[in-house]
Amino acid sequence: MYEKVNCKLPLGQVLADGWLKVQLETQAKGLTGNIDAIWDDLGPNSGWLGGTGENWERGPYYCDGLVPLAFLLKDEELLEKVEKWIGWTLKSKTPDGFFGPQNNRDWWPRMVMLKALIQYYEAKPNPEILLLMKDYFTYQLHHIDEKPLTDWGKYRASENIDAVLWLYEKTGEPNLLSLADKLFKQSFNWSDFFRNFPYKKPIGYYMDWQKVQNANLPVNERSIAFPDYMKSHVVNVAMAVKYPALVMRFYGDQGQKDILKKGLEDLYKYHGVANGMFIGDEHLNGNSPSNGTELCAVVELMFSLQKVLEVINDVFFADLLEKVAYNALPATIDRKRQGKDKGTVLLSKKDTGKDTGTVLLSKRHRDGSLV
Question: pTM to 2 decimals?
Answer without folding.
Answer: 0.91
